[in-house]
Amino acid sequence: MSSPTGKSAERATGPGAHAAGSPDTPRGRSRRTLPSPLRHLLFAALGLAAVTGLLLVTGDLTALRLAAVGYTMLAVAGLQLLVGGSGQVSLGHGAFMMIGAYTMTLLVLHQPMLPIAANLLIIVAVSAVAGIAVGAATARLHGPYLAGATLILAVGLPGLTHRYHEFLGGSNGLNIRTAGAPPFLQGVFTDSEWKALVVWTTVVIGLAVLATISSGRLGRRMRSLRDDETAAAMAGVPVGKTKVVAFVIASAAGGLGGGLQAYVLGTATPSSFTLVLSLTLLAALVFGGIGSLWGALWAAVTVVYLQIWATDLARSLELGRNVENNLPVVFFGIVLILVLRFWPLGLHGALTRLGARLRPPTTR
Amino acid sequence: MRRGTPGVLAAALALTVMATACTGAGEVADGGEVDLDVSTGVTDDSIVLGSHQPLTGPAAPGYLAVSQGARAVFDYVNAQGGIHGRQIDYRVEDDAYDPAQTIDVTRQLVLEDEIFAMVGGLGTPTHGGVIDYLNDEGVPDIFPSSGALAWNNTEEHPLTYGWQTDYTKEAKIQGQYISENFSGQNVGYLYQNDDIGEDSQAGLDQYLADEVVAREHYESEVSDLSAQVAEFERTEAEVVVCSCIPAFVALAMLEAASIGYEPQWVISSIGGDTATLQGLLAEFTQDTDAEDVPADAFLDGALVTSYMPRVEDQEDEWAQFFLEVYGEYGEGETVTNTHVFGMTQAVMVAQVLRSAGQDLTRQSLVDAMEAQEWQGPGLLPFSSSGGDHGGHQGVYVVQYRAGGTIEMVQGPRVTDREGGGIEETDFERLPPEELDFHD
C-alpha cells in the first residue's frame, strides 16, 4: 500500500508549500489576494491533477479505492460543515447518502440516456429537497434532540426499500451498469480509472463550493451559531434560516457522495446505508479533525484504508482467524480514543501542531 | 460572500462534468469477448481460489461455517497431494455482508490476489453486485452460495454456475409434499421479504394456492414475529412453511410455543440446519420461562428439505466422511450442516478442477464444468451444462426427531423452476473413496 501514503505526502505538501512560500512575499501575497472562489477552484484543479497523476501510475484496485476516498470525503465534508461549522450534530448523514445512491440507480435504470452530469445535478436537487424537508422540521431542535431526530432517519429510511419492494428492490437493492470511459479515451483510462476521475472532478468542485461557503458570510454566520446561538441572534443572524441552509448544504453533499458511490459500485442496497455508516462518518470526521475541511480528507482515507491496513497487519502478525476478522474494528476504536485523548482536534489538529513546531527553524 | 458566486460555481460544476461525459450514464456498450485461454492464478504447484464471505458483522454467526468447512476440505485435498500436483490456495475475504465491501474485496481478489476462479461467493445482495464484474473480467464464478434464480442465466452471465437448489424448485417440491401428505389442511407461509419469499411463493402456489390461509413476511432487520405467528394461529394454519434463515425459524418456533400454537413446521434448506437451530433456540430461551425446555423439543417433528448430505444422518458415507475430515482439518467445534454446505461445495470444486486436467486454463475449467458428470456428494442430480447452470435440481424431505436423528420421509425428487412436473430420480452417488477429487 504505497500509493495512499504517496498521496498523503503529496497532499500534505499543499499547506507546507504555502508556508514555505511565505518569505517569497510577492507570490505569496498575490495568491492570498485572489478572490476566495477562484483560490478554491485553483486548489481543486491542483487536487484533481494530483489524483489524475496518481491514477495513471496505479491500477484498477487503487482507482476503486481512490474513488471511495473521494465520495466518502465529499459526504464527510458536508457533515463537517454541519457539525464543525454550524454545531448541529446529525446522526442521519448516511440516510442522505442513501437518497443519493437510490436516486442514481433509479435514474440509470429508468432514464439510461441521461448523462452522468445531469444525474448528479438531479441528485443534488433531490437531496437538497430532502434536506429542506428534514432541516425545516428539525430547525428548532438542537444538541441531543437534533441527533435523536436525525437518528430516526438513519434507522427508518432503509425500511422504505422493503415497503416499496417492487420499486426499490427490497433488501437485495438495485444493481446498475454505468458507462465507462468515452470511446476516444478508452486507450488512456480504464473504466474504473475513468469513474474515479468523474468522482474526483465532482468531489473537488463540491469541496471548492463548500470551502467558499465556509469562508464566506454564510460560514461566519454558521460559526456564530455554533459558538452562541443567543448572541448570534442578537447580532442579527437569522438563526432558523441559517440552520436550515447548513442542513440543506450538508444533505446535498451527502446525497452527492452517495450518488457517486452508486455510480462507481453499480449497486445500492439498504445494508450499505445502515446506522453504522452514519456513525462511522461522524466518528471518522471527529477522528480526522472536526474544525477543518482537511479533516474530511483524513476521515475519508481512514474509512477506506484503515480496515485494509489493519487486516494486512493482522495477517502479517499471523494471529488467529477470529482475531484477524475482528481486529480492524478494535483497531479503529483504539486509534480513535488515542487520537482524541492527545489531539482533541483530530488528525488535522495533530498535523497542524506538528507543522507549527517544524516551522520556526525554516523562518529563522 | 458576494451574491452570485454559488451560481457561478454551480454553472462551473455543470459545465465541467458535462464536458467529461456526454453519453448516457446507463448506456453500456457490450463488452468484447473475454479471453478465457489464460491460467491466471495457476502455477506449477498451486491454484489460487477466492471467495467473499461474511466473516464479521450480523451475518457472520450464521455463515462463518461455510468457509470454515470449505477450507477444511481444501486442506484435506492438499494433504492428499492436491490436484494434479497443485496445492489449492483458498483465499477468503470478509465483506461483512455489505455489498459495497463485496465489490472492494472482489476487485482485490481479482486484481491483487489474481485468483483463478471465484468459488462460493456468499449472499444474494452481495454476490449480485459483483456478478457482472466477474463475467466481464472472464473470471469463472463457480457456485455462489445462495439460491437466487439470477445465477442461472447463461445468456447474460455465461461464467456463473449456480449450486444451491433454487428457491422455486425447492418450494414446488415442498408444496407437492404438503398437498399430498396434509391434504385439505390450512397452510401458512412465513417468508423473508426479498427474492427468497418471492421465488418460494411462486413454487408453493403451484400446489397450495387453495389451501393457503395466511402469507406473512418478515424483514431480516426486525427480530419480532409475534404479529405473524398470531395471524397463523388466528387463521388456523395447521402447516406453516418457513422460507426463512435459521434465526427466524427459531424465533417463529419460540413465538408459537409461547402462545401454545403447534403447527407442522416445514423448513427450507436455508433455515433447516438443526445444529444451528438448536444453538439459536438455546440462546433465545436463556433467562426466559422456557429456559428448561430442551431445544430439541421445539424441533421435534419438523420437516426439512435438503439436497446435501446431512450431519444427523449416521448412515450416510459422505456425512461421516465430512465429520472425519473436519475433525482433522477443521477449527474444532460442532460440525453443522452449514459446515457441510461449504464442504460439499469444496469437494465439487476440487472435482471439477481435477476433471479440467493437467493443463489448467479458465477455458478448460469451463469446458470441464460443461462436461462434468456429477456423482455427489449431493443427493440430487446437478446441472452445469447446456444452457442450464441451475445446480442441484431438487430436494428430498426429512423429518427431525428429538434426540438428533432424522428420517427421510420422501426421497430425492427433481423439477424445474417453471411450471413443469416433479419427478422421482434414481440418481446414484459415488462414495468418498471412489469420487475423483484429489490426487
UniProtKB/TrEMBL annotation, chain A:
Q: Where are the transmembrane segments?
A: 38-57, 63-83, 90-110, 116-138, 145-164, 197-216, 244-264, 276-306, 327-344
User: Where mainly found?
Assistant: membrane
**PANTHER family reported for this sequence:** HIGH-AFFINITY BRANCHED-CHAIN AMINO ACID TRANSPORT PROTEIN BRAE, HIGH-AFFINITY BRANCHED-CHAIN AMINO ACID TRANSPORT SYSTEM PERMEASE
Q: Which UniProt keywords apply?
A: Cell membrane, Membrane, Transmembrane, Transmembrane helix
Q: Does the keyword Transmembrane helix apply?
A: yes
Positions of the UniProt region annotated as Disordered: 1-32
Name under which the protein is recorded: Branched-chain amino acid ABC transporter permease
- Membrane topology of this protein: Multi-pass membrane protein
Using the record, list the residue span of the signal peptide; answer none if the entry has no such feature: none
What is any Pfam family matched here? BPD_transp_2
Which organism is this protein's natural source?
Nocardiopsis tropica
Location in the cell: Cell membrane
TrEMBL record, chain B:
Going by the UniProt record, its keywords in alphabetical order are: Signal
Q: Which SUPFAM superfamilies match?
A: Periplasmic binding protein-like I
| Pfam families for this protein | Peripla_BP_6
Q: Which residues form the signal peptide?
A: 1-21
Q: Which InterPro entries match?
A: Leu-bd, Peripla_BP_I
Keyword Secreted: yes or no? Answer: no
What PROSITE patterns does UniProt report for this protein, alphabetically? PROKAR_LIPOPROTEIN (PS51257)
Membrane-spanning segments? none
What region holds the Leucine-binding protein domain? Answer: 47-404
Q: Which family does it belong to?
A: Belongs to the leucine-binding protein family.
What PANTHER family does the record tag this protein with?
BLR6548 PROTEIN
Which protein, by its recorded name, is this?
ABC transporter substrate-binding protein
